[in-house]
């Protein structure tokens, strides 16, 4: 095992806080992960982690070594990037995350074309509606709706995404057609909300004649999967706030109807996120450039017909 492999393994163990998690991330066995850390500790003649049966904690020496280890990997990555740029044959694994609706509709359909164009790049696409941590989860690129919580990330804006409030004709027949945000709250409409870690209440930001207003909404149903909210809305279970590109086909078919049109939701930013450590990686640059143009075109197509 090379010294560089041992350093890479140490960094992932440090960031993920677990030998097993680091092994899964690096696609190596727990035994190999442990052996690499032991070899590195023997080489340095220090303990990098305090190990118990239930926890793994960096020592003072491990914390001190982490910053230098990251610098080493950054330098190697930069050097490899220069060679890759010259050979025009980028290769390696690319870890990408995206919200479920964005990933299924706007990214996944184009991934095969990307890998056909760059056959030496292996794309690992992870779809989730929860907020991801690029550093601790070993991600190269994340697509994101809204403002990222981490101000240290680099951002490439793709588009401002139009959102709509939608409900099924069956729901409207039963509960009425809410004209605006005030009616949603006053008439206690069932609002279908996207649950994410840390959310204690739900507020919908709507544009009104008096400017932006926040409406506190509630309902019986919530979920951490945006597509489930769409299914519930189609089934007549309530009103959902959705990016227009996610429900355009259902609006066209009549399965969903736009409601509260006089107070539409505030558009939400879609962007690519990446860390400072990734900005020299040609795989990340190529993937972002490839996807951004296609995503922007798809979003524009749905919004231009609204």
Overall mean pLDDT: 87
Distance between the termini: 58 Å
Oligomerization state of this entry? single chain
Helix content: 40-55%
Number of helices: 11
Could you describe the largest sheet, including whether it forms a barrel?
Answer: 5 strands, mixed
Question: Strands of the biggest beta sheet: in what spatial order?
Answer: 4-3-5-14-6
Order of secondary-structure elements: HHHEEHEHHEEEEHHEEEEHEHEEH
Broad shape: elongated
- Overall number of strands: 14
What is the structural class?
alpha/beta
Radius of gyration: 23 Å
Instruction: State which percent range the strand residues make up.
Output: 15-25%
Low-confidence segments, given as residue ranges, are: none
Task: Describe the model.
Helices cover 44% and strands 24% of the residues. The chain has eleven helices and 14 strands. It has helices at 3-16, 19-26, 30-44, 60-87, 100-107, 111-117, 169-175, 181-186, 226-234, 244-253, 282-304; strands spanning 49-51, 56-58, 92-98, 121-127, 141-145, 154-161, 163-167, 191-194, 202-208, 211-217, 222-223, 239-243, 257-259, 268-274. A five-stranded mixed sheet has the order 4-3-5-14-6. A five-stranded mixed sheet has the order 11-8-12-7-13. Strands 1-2 form a two-stranded antiparallel sheet. A hairpin with a 4-residue loop joins strand 1 and strand 2. Helix 1 crosses helix 3 (30-44), helix 1 packs across helix 4 (60-87) and helix 2 (19-26) packs across helix 3 (30-44).
